[in-house]
Amino acid sequence: MISKQEVEYVAHLARLEIDDAQKDKFTSQLNDILLYIDKLNELDTTGVEPMSHAIAVTNAFREDRIVDSLGTEKSLANAPDGRGEFFRVPKVIE
Amino acid sequence: MEFETVIGLEVHAQLLTNTKIFCNCSTKFGGAPNSHACPVCLGMPGVLPVLNKKVVEFAMKMSLATNCIINKSCSFARKNYFYPDLPKGYQISQYAYPLSEHGYVFLEVDGAQKKIGITRIHMEEDAGKLMHDEHNPVSYVDLNRAGVPLIEIVSEPDMRSPEEAADYLKRLHEILVYLEICDGNMEEGSFRCDANVSIRPVGQKEFGTRSELKNMNSFRNVQRALEYEVKRQQYIVENGGNIVQETRLWDDAQGVTNSMRSKEEAHDYRYFPDPDLVPIIVDDAWIEAIRKELPELPLAKRERFVKDYQIPAYDAGVLTADKALSNYYEEVVRLCRSPKAASNWVMGDVLRFLNEEKRDIRNCPITAASLAEMISLIEDGTISGKMAKDIVEKMYKTGSAPKAIIAEKGMVQITDEGELLKTISAIMAANPNQLGDYRGGKDKLFGFFVGQVMKATQGKANPQIVNELLKKMLAG
Amino acid sequence: MELNQLTIHELQEKIKNGQTSATQVIESVFNRIDVVEERVHSYIRLMKDEALAAAKKADEDIKKGDIKPLTGIPVALKDIVCTKSITTTCGSHILHNFVPPYDATVVEKLRDAGAVFVGKANMDEFAMGSSTETSCFGVTRNPWDLTRIPGGSSGGSATAVAADECIASIGSDTGGSIRQPAALCGVVGLKPTYGRVSRFGLIAFASSLDQIGPFTKDVEDCAIMMNVLAGYDPRESTSVQTEVPDYRQFVGKGIAGWKIGIPKEYFIEGIDPEVAAAIKKAIAVIEKCGGQCVDISLPHTEYCLAVYYIIAPAEASSNLARYDGVKYGYRTSEARDLLDMYKKTRTQGFGTEVKRRIMIGTYALSSGYYDAYYKKASQVRALIKHDFAEALKKCDVILTPTTPTPAFKIGEKTDNPLQMYLSDLFTISSNLAGIPGISVPCGFTAAGLPVGMQFLAGHFEEGKLIQIASAYEKNANIEKRRPQL
Ligand SMILES: [Zn+2]
Fold first, then answer.
1. Which chains touch A (3 or more CB pairs under 8 A)?
2. C453 vs C400: CA distance, rounded Å
3. Residue B277 and residue A59: Cα distance in Å, rounded?
4. How many domains does chain C have?
5. What is the pLDDT of residue A94?
6. What is the pLDDT, as a whole number, of residue B246?
């Protein structure tokens, strides 16, 4: 079972805020889902190689050739706070 | 209580590929901010990474050069964390399945060879650059560096002193530069090092609690930071305290390490296999092809220099520490065929001039051909060693060839016996007292006559010939 | 019949014969949009100016005799595929103003094939949903009953085809997001083999499951679209270099002697009786065509949903980390510092379902839980893939209902995520295994809601799916209905 504290920790890891009103609802919904997911533990998967790709492709490479970049202007075109040649962000508070 | 120091290093080296690890942007240093960026390295939605083959090949070279076993299959994982210099919110790195493992390099410690284990070498992407505004509570992000290929070389905790750590670091640096896969520039950050350091009472098997040191941007600083940290830890333990596992930053100006105050939210990176990238399968044929491309490595070259050129191990060490320097030296030897003289001149005057100006051998005004020519001129007696000292300095200052300088200054050595005989006769005539004393048994005065001849010829007389002629003439 | 009601192949005939022009076709599509769009809401953004210009260009090409596979055909794009210089939102406020400087590979391919883009279709936010109710641009309604959902996440792409607001469309399918809305809207929808159609420019939900595919009015159109979409793309590492057949050759071929696998695990209690009845009738048609039904078993079926609801959110939690208010998209205006900016931007920018899945995924990957959740799910996924490999040794294709029920009411399941997830029960397994699947219409309920049948085949056997779906379509004699709007 996931606790409210764990929900808070996970929300912080994911950089989300969950207000107190939502927290209970969210916790119980997540628990419903996790409970459902728990049925996987019925299965013995000892020795089964985990699958991370649906199709077994290997060695997909690119040649080391330069292609024109976007350039500063286009790189910043979508920036919510582009200043000069940079993306600007609020200061990191340690 | 006696303590033993335990050090392990994590080295990050930027690879000298033309393009980034997962996109076709240039890796060139120093472009306008955010100019070497594309949808892939800006982390835009929907775009996908495709691995630069050269990165794998460069990483394989380093693996082979450090005796690592290259895994038949390796893959990429995502390391998830939020930071403005990390455009995707995760770094593509290798985690459970690195490229290579179980390598080693040798260091010379107290005259013996010591093996330092390399745990693993893996490939990953670099982050961008974050610059903090000094006056306002904002930071600026430049993503030119985001996606530049790195290899991380993780050592075993095998080093027992800061000197060993610095030495190991130099070995790695040397190899990377020899392989021409990294420019090795520590100040620009293309070669970076983090250190894990702990102490334990001599004889204890378990490791002590370690601290991780960051922000050391020169070999010297790595050693200084480790020395400081070892003392700090000893002081704490000796005073009954406990070492805290933490990351500490080296402060170069103060010469101390400082705790990176607990923003240590116990990093939870949520590694998992990157579904956008596929496994890399390395077969023996590929490994052998890469092995064939390996240049002669520093250690092998050092041994060859000692054997083939008959120069001392120390000289060989100096001359091979930098690949360009060793190439320069070998070119001089090839042209003048005097390995010992070449080594003396390169290690002596040439390196001294370069060091004074903090110049690189690649930009040395004295070409290998010029230096070889000068050495040949000494050996065939055209100039004396003393004259050569002046000439080599002029060569460095002007970049001119030795013959040009000699011609210009009229510095050719006087080897004409007739001319020298005349000079000697004149000197004997002018110094009858000394001549009498010499002939009376005062052998020491021989030097006086040599000096007079040199003075009269402004140092241009060939000393050997002067010696021979003087002996005959003074004898009467 | 109006031009906008025709299929690709019917329009191609008319265009070739000079009976109509690309401009007339696109005008008829926009006339229809003017009438029904307000009620259905298939689109987030219409591209009328671009479309008219593209149609004009197509007409010039036609005059020159330069007719490509989709010349002059109006196609809708799910707003999850990036379109250069055209805002692409993924149904999310966090991307409400994002203008990509690049086209998705499929967009390039469609344009090169002569397609005329009608607009960007509505979808569940980041494709997370089964009902097109989570879009920040409002719900899309089922043209067959405006009080019901069209399915999702590619709801807008399905309704645009079903309501004749385009001729064909593009969707994406991570757990059924093409096939489920195709079934609920009465159109054909195909999810290709993983790696068959390029994902470059497809905004990622779950990278190891996502695949782009077409919605069409009939099976032949599906083949025509696949001919354009399929193929290797060097810009995607997971793209597969396998030869692409001419899919059209499979249309109209029979299926005599084929073995049709009927997995017992898919015919369970809980299937709507009218859906069950429609499938039963469809099986009879398949047998009449010469198909021979065989019982097969996919023993790990009951675990598919659990595996999916670990792997998809885990990948999504990482894929969606890039939406941080730094480089593009929405940023909060009230941040105290960087951490606060991150949290407020993401909390205000994402909808509830997206946040829920990010939370599940983050939890499943977090320290101490990785083995229990992500690793376990990846292992069971391997077992599921193995099930299909074994089953497909005994049959040519597998037949199942596409969905357990017809379209449900808008708002009916929004407060019960688990119930909502269950509507993907039959479609999820093929994404986990990477195999292709197609949904074809197989009749209506008494209330007039469409029912879909799904065929699944082995990797890269889209041709088989087209062959059997076309055989069924030809022989089923399903009454031609159009939604009354
Ligand atoms: Zn790039």
1. B, C
2. 6
3. 9
4. 1
5. 55
6. 87
Does the residue C73 lie in any domain? yes
Res B55: pLDDT = 98
Judged by DSSP in three states, C209 sits in coil
CATH code of the domain in which C72 resides: 3.90.1300.10
Q: How far is CA C353 from the centre of its chain?
A: 19
Q: Which residue type occupies C275?
A: V
Extents of the domains making up chain A: 4-41
Are the beta carbons of A81 and C331 separated by less than 8 Å?
yes
Give the three-class secondary structure for C322: helix
- Bridge partners (DSSP) of residue B11 are B153, B193
Q: How does A59-79 read in b/e, with b if 16+ C-beta sit within 10 Å?
A: ebbbebeeeebbbbebbbebb
pLDDT at B473: 86
- How many A from CA of B431 to the centre of ligand 1? 83
Instruction: Kindly give the residue spans of alpha helices, DSSP state H, lying in B267-384.
Output: 284-293, 298-309, 313-320, 323-336, 339-345, 351-356, 368-379
* CA dihedral (C380, C383, C387, C389) positive or negative: positive
For residue C437, which phi and psi values (nearest 5 degrees)? Answer: -150, 145
Which residues in A lie closer than 8 A to residue B261 (C-beta atoms)? Answer: 94
What are the structural domains, with CATH classification, of chain B?
3-288 (no CATH), 296-409 (no CATH), 417-475 (1.10.10.410)
Rounded to 5 degrees, φ, ψ at B122 are: -135, 160
- Dig out the tokens for C231 from the structure: 């193929």
Selecting from B39, B89, B139 the residue whose C-beta is nearest the C-beta of C321 gives B89
Catalytic residues of C: 78, 153, 177
Largest CA distance in chain A: 58
Are A92 and B143 inside 8 Å of each other by CB? no
Record: contact A45-C459, CB cut-off 8 A? no
Backbone angles phi, psi at C215, to 5 degrees: -110, 130
Asked whether the predicted pLDDT for residue B261 surpasses 90, the reply is: no
Tens-digit pLDDT profile for residues C8-43: 999 999 999 999 999 999 999 999 999 999 999 999
Distance separating alpha carbons of residues C205 and C177, to the nearest angstrom: 11
Order the strands of the B256-259 sheet from edge to edge.
B69-70, B100-109, B112-125, B149-155, B3-14, B191-201, B211-214, B246-251, B256-259
Give the residue ranges of chain C where pLDDT is below 50: none
Whether the pLDDT of residue B262 is over 60: the answer is: no
Residue C39 lies in a domain: yes
Both tokens of B98, joined, read 């690195």
CA–CA separation, B17 vs B20, rounded Å?
Answer: 7
> What DSSP state is assigned to residue B443?
G
Per DSSP bridges, beta strands C450-456 and C437-444 are antiparallel
From A62, A69, A92, residue closest to B53, measured CB to CB:
A62
> CA A94 to CA B262: how far, in whole Å?
8
Strand partners, B103: B118
- Do C131 and C124 form a contact (C-beta atoms < 8 A)? yes
Pairs of residues, one from chain A and one from chain C, whose beta carbons lie less than 8 Å apart? 165
Q: Which residue has the tokens 């220099």?
A: B305
Closest chain B CA to residue C84: B39
Q: Which residues does B145 contact at the CB level (< 8 Å), separation at least 6?
A: B126, B127, B128, B129
- Tell me which residues have their CB within 5 A of the ion that is ligand 1: B 23, 25, 38, 40-41
Q: Which of A14, A52, A93 is facing C339, going by the closest CB pair?
A: A93
Domain assignment of residue C112, given as a range: 3-250
User: Chain A 34-53, CB below 8 Å of chain C: which residues?
Assistant: 34, 36-41, 43, 45, 48-53
Tell whether C362 is covered by a domain: no
Quick check: is C335 in a domain?
Answer: no
| One-letter amino acid for residue A63 of the chain | E
Contact at 8 Å (CB) between C9 and C224? yes
Q: Does A89 touch chain B (CB under 8 A)?
A: yes
- Distance CA(B312)–CA(B302), nearest Å, equals 10
